[in-house]
Structures are given as C-alpha cells and as structure tokens.
Amino acid sequence: MYLLTKILVSAVIIGIVTEIARRFPTYGGVVAALPLVSLLSIIWLYVQGESSESLSKFALGVLWGFPATAVLLLIVYLSLKQSINLYASIFIGVSGWFVFLILQQNLVNLLKAKIGSLF
C-alpha cells in the first residue's frame, strides 16, 4: 500500500508539471527544473525511517549528478534546436551525461592524487 501511495503522489506531481509545461512552456521548464524528484525521494526515504546520515549521502549524490544533468539538458536543447529527432536528442544527451560523469570522476581522482601528493 505504501509503495502505491508513493507512486500515485509522484505521478500526480509529474502530471501537474507536464500540464503547466503544456500550457506555459517556459514556466513549465522552470517548475520542472525544481528538484522535485530529489525532494520527493528525500521525503520518502525520511518517512521510511532512513537516518540523517543516509539522507545526507543521498543529497550529496544528487549534487554530484547535477553538473552532468546540466550537460544532458544542454545537449538535448541544442539537438532539438537543430531539429534532431526527440529520441535521438535524448540518446545523445544521455550519452553526453554518461561521458561527463566519467570525466568528472577522473578529474576528481586526479585532483585527489595531486592534493594527496602535496601532503
């Protein structure tokens, strides 16, 4: 029952956001940019009894994924602007997202190694 409640509440929120986007595309984009999925996830995890430490780690993971998500959205925007098919645009965007995450992790590892060698 609890899983069904989470699904229904989440679906209603997504439905509202898509209706706003259909009627007012710019405002819909702004509302969609709100971290609704992240906030809903934090709330559901909290309600399920997860510790503050676990919630904190989850929030950090969301922050970690944010730059790659910005890259994904930029790629999709630019692809659609060039009249590339929606599904191809999404595929290119997700590919860019994945590549960016790998580059981001490699950069962090490199910086850790450089900083670690200083001490």
From TrEMBL:
It comes from the Bacteria. Keywords: Membrane, Transmembrane, Transmembrane helix. Coiled coil: none annotated. The chain crosses the membrane at residues 30-47, 59-78, 84-103. NCBIfam families: PRK09272.1-3 (NF006750). This is DUF3147 family protein. It comes from Sutcliffiella horikoshii.
